[in-house]
Amino acid sequence: MKTNAEIAAALDELGDLYELDGAVSYRVIAYRTAAKAVRDSSVSIMGLTREGKVTSVPGIGKTLEEKLRALDETGDIPSAVKLRAKFPAGLVEMTKLPGFGAKRARQLHDALGVDTLEGLRALAEQGEVRKVKGFGPKGEENLLKALAAHEERGGEPEPRVVLSRALPIALEIAEALRAHPASDQVEVAGSARRWGDSVKDIDIIATASDAKALVDTLAGLEIVESVSQSGEAGARAVTHSGMKVDLKVVAPDQFGNVLQHFTGSKAHNVQLREAMVRRGLHISEYGVLDDETGETTRCATEEEVYERLGLPWIPPELREGRGELDAALKGELPQLITLDDMRGDLHCHTTLSDGRNTLEEMVAAAQARGYEYLAITDHSASHGFGNHVTPEQLEARIDEIAALNERLDGFRVLAGTESNILPDGTLDYPDELLERLDWVIGSIHTSFGMDESAMTERMLTAINHPWLDAIGHPTGRKIETRPPYSIDMARVIEAAAANGTMIEINSAPDRRDMNDVYARAAAAAGVTILIDSDAHGAETLANLRYGVATARRAWLTAAQVANTRPLDEFLQLRKRGRSSSATT
DNA sequence: GCCGTTTTCGGCCCGACTGTTTTCAGTCG
């Protein structure tokens, strides 16, 4: 069965092909919207298609339902097959070149008969492209530049950077700008403000008594390599690490409009504007135009922007076009979890396996963060990276932790493990040992290549293990570097909800696994969510903020997350805590 | 191609930039 990612790619491709074919733009947009809806869906779109329910997904109607049926039954969509014969793959690649879209690709194809990037470059070098109507010397030059850049990246799309690399840069720059006496307000906008998994660039919006002074400050920062397009309105900079930074200096009375606009997401803004056009309001980065009065309202704060639209302020993490407008209109926005709600961390490592700090050091760091409890979950007997913990070592660790707890006041260390889920779904410690522990996380670290049904069965077997309390990083993805392994998360969620197994949001910034979409679905299905740092050192306990951010993007409240609870309540939420209320 | 406090047709977000155009189309965020 096709995955949502594969279906989304198929719909995007069909949109590209229809665009090359000259379809009306709204039809093309419909395919792109549908592709996004499929990508954002936590349930299997093919499953819904087979059940005849797929048109309940916003953006998918009768026509697309038919195409999804064909895709399921024949493995392809007939119209895509037909259009691919008409427009070779090279032509679709052309539309992806920066500055080039379907119209210009089609023009070149029709005028020059070219349908590969190599052929196009040859013609551009011979000066043939400038003769095409609509192109000139500049167009040809830009095409050659785009082709060279494309080649340099090996045909890959523009890279995105994991948030944890971009955020410190963004905050450092914002801090430096705030420190300048000419600055007034300085805020990071864009996907960094929405705490997305990764970002393309950094947007900073500011107000200042002297815009030029702010631009100069940016240009003078040590981390900044170069600045271009600098002027009164702002500048674009590139850091030595290759991060693009856009600074916009705006008038104080429209700071709210600009911040709202550049925080996005695009989907959120489009939905917001479409909804407000029906009320005669036109939103732009400059203000809100009222058809009735013909007047444009400028807003100094973002709260005023939303208020002008009759809405409560919407937290940036929710602005992804995933139902937040409806919820805001109905006054049903969730009270999102915050980092301050967290009372413990249930997944970390010590020097016993591959951590950098000792048991005592990790506990001290957790206490310093104001936690009430910490579970020590070193890797298990078959970890396989030379850092495994034998059953004997783990038994000694249990005693060590018991002794440590004797000395601690108002803090509890839980003896745990991050046990490997073996390919057959079993854990790699004897049951008697797992039973003696306070806490067991099961994670998959090997055999990522299993097919979806085998991988799902493997996970379900683990979920049904009586001493497994929680599943760690359930999809195995690494943001921007490794896709998730094939697994039916809908079934995993259903099984976990059925027998009270918790599912983790792993906060390692390149994991954030499960992701926001699955976490929202899991919580809705009644799964108890856990947010863990997976710290391998005292300092990375602080990574929990990335997991909390994912939880916020999943619409979660504190009540839906196990480790916001006081120790006793948390212990009761464990499978073993429910089967016997006794605590060790 | 989707969708509905303008419901089954006729709409569908907003503005900047670029390069080419003699009034604007294409692309981007």
Automatic annotation (TrEMBL):
Keyword set, alphabetical order: DNA replication, DNA synthesis, DNA-directed DNA polymerase, Exonuclease, Hydrolase, Nuclease, Nucleotidyltransferase, Transferase
Q: Which residues form the DNA-directed DNA polymerase X domain?
A: 2-320
Q: Which cofactor does it need?
A: Mg(2+)
Q: Which residues form the Polymerase/histidinol phosphatase N-terminal domain?
A: 344-423
Q: Which residues form a coiled coil?
A: none
Query: Which terms does the record give in the GO molecular function aspect?
Result: exonuclease activity
Main EC class the enzyme belongs to: transferase
Q: What is this protein called?
A: DNA-directed DNA polymerase
This protein's species is Solirubrobacter deserti
Please name the taxonomic classification of the source: Bacteria, Bacillati, Actinomycetota, Thermoleophilia, Solirubrobacterales
Q: Which gene encodes it?
A: polX
